[in-house]
Amino acid sequence: MATNVRIPVGYDPRSFPPVAVTVDMVVLTIADGVLQVLLVERGAEPFEGSWALPGGFIHEDETLDDAARRELEEETGTQVAPYLQQFHTYGDPGRDPRMRVVTVAYLAVVPTVGDISAGTDARLAELVPLTRALKGTGRYRLAFDHRVILRDAVDQARALLETTSIATAFVDDPFTLSELRHVYEAVWGQALDPGNFRRKVLSTPGFVVATGRHARPGPEGGKPPELFHPGTITRLDPALHRA
Amino acid sequence: MATNVRIPVGYDPRSFPPVAVTVDMVVLTIADGVLQVLLVERGAEPFEGSWALPGGFIHEDETLDDAARRELEEETGTQVAPYLQQFHTYGDPGRDPRMRVVTVAYLAVVPTVGDISAGTDARLAELVPLTRALKGTGRYRLAFDHRVILRDAVDQARALLETTSIATAFVDDPFTLSELRHVYEAVWGQALDPGNFRRKVLSTPGFVVATGRHARPGPEGGKPPELFHPGTITRLDPALHRA
DNA sequence: CTAATAGTGTCTCTAAGACAGTATTCC
DNA sequence: GGAATACTGTCTTAGAGACACTATTAG
């Protein structure tokens, strides 16, 4: 089949076999106190009965970051993710049985996923607890190498919590230090000492900014917690180490 | 012009405009006590008078990592780099004026560059001090966005020195702790205390392995230094922090 | 001998972790 | 009042950095 591929000066067409480039996204959020990932179900073959990370082909005249932002909005209705960064590119031949596909994978972190069904596609989208998505069996079996991509993204997120302020991307503004601590506990899967956590966060200049206001205590009571805004820094120094 | 691009089932050809995928490499090494990068000169337009990072199109039926290994060997004759990892993918439209090119960038670290002219290409290759390569003017003006790629790679390398054992990739096996310290000093551009450095390295289990042997002192004299092999670990815990 | 490099000892300071104690709310 | 959550204080320990000191070589 003929296409409109133009062969530029100085390039031998046989040097670059047909390659499709996609941007796929691992959208992480915390719901019900558990780390969750956004998955979509694609009806058509060869996706039959399997789920996938949201994503799609890059358009002409858009950067990779723009493509990621576009896909994110198409899928979640979210205009801006507090965190959206490329983390790895996957290009094994045969990872997509139809043709050579090179996928630039992005990690997105959002505080809440609005209306999932607001996506422009008619595809079914769901927020899935990470443990179930990584299981590899049952309802949420992942297509292609998407299970590897998801695992890599979560490893990346766990590491970024130590050295960057990515945790603030999981919570709404303003937030309490308990909410911020719950982010670390959900992603790392381990409990942290509230007192020591507070001291570490507050002793890292620029991580969070006090508002002076306080939130109402929850239904269980307790002292009204102080509210904070995200800070301006992106790199934590000193880092917040895992035990 | 017609090509042999086949349109697979289920894909709309207009969804994936013609994209070429290349693997480009930032090959770092230390020579004359200074961090150096391998650059190649490409004669043909639009490279006229500018230098570039070594790299090329991916082949069918090879993984991205395999493409990187192949390019490295073509360019340096080195079969195996002690460190070779993908670090970022660049795909802005217009970054290559000829067509849409998505470049997966790799960071390679080698202890010594063998015969540079051993490359299969007839292109001229040179080891260039990083400071001159990053200057952006003079003899080694870089093509396209290669200056940005180089800067990102060096930032990455500086960060990896803190948390991984990448430093051992810069030195031959076996090595002395002074040689290892010179790696940190050259890449970070700052002097380190020899005594404290030794203690930190030896207190990180698995970073280096003592051989029991000693090297001859240099022409300036001094106590014969102990020789070490690279260790088995890849992640430094605790990390080796920069001041 | 001196100069240079390799390696050790020791002191101070900072940050992490354990954990007890205080403050303020809901029920 | 008791239970729960939000803080604060204090003690111990580990690691980083400064820097003095010892060991072994070349010239």
CATH third-tier fold name of the largest domain in chain A: Nucleoside Triphosphate Pyrophosphohydrolase
General form of chain A = elongated
Percent of residues in β-strands of chain A = 15-25%
How many strand elements of chain A? 9
- Straight-line distance between termini of chain A: 58 Å
Output mean pLDDT of chain A.
88
Largest interface: A-B, 42 and 42 residues
- Return Rg of chain A in Å: 20 Å
Instruction: Quickly count the helices of chain A.
Output: 5
> Largest sheet of chain A, if any?
7 strands, mixed
Oligomer: homodimer
Q: Please tell me the CATH architecture of the largest domain in chain A by its name.
A: Alpha-Beta Complex
- Total domain count of chain A: 2
Percent of residues of chain A in helical segments?
10-25%
Going by helix content, strand content and strand pairing, the class of chain A is alpha+beta
CATH H level, superfamily name of the largest domain in chain A:
Nucleoside Triphosphate Pyrophosphohydrolase
Which spans of chain A have pLDDT < 50 for at least 5 consecutive residues?
1-10
Q: Which CATH top level class of the largest domain in chain A fits?
A: Alpha Beta
Sketch the topology of chain A as an H/E string, one letter per element.
EEEEHEEEHHHHEE
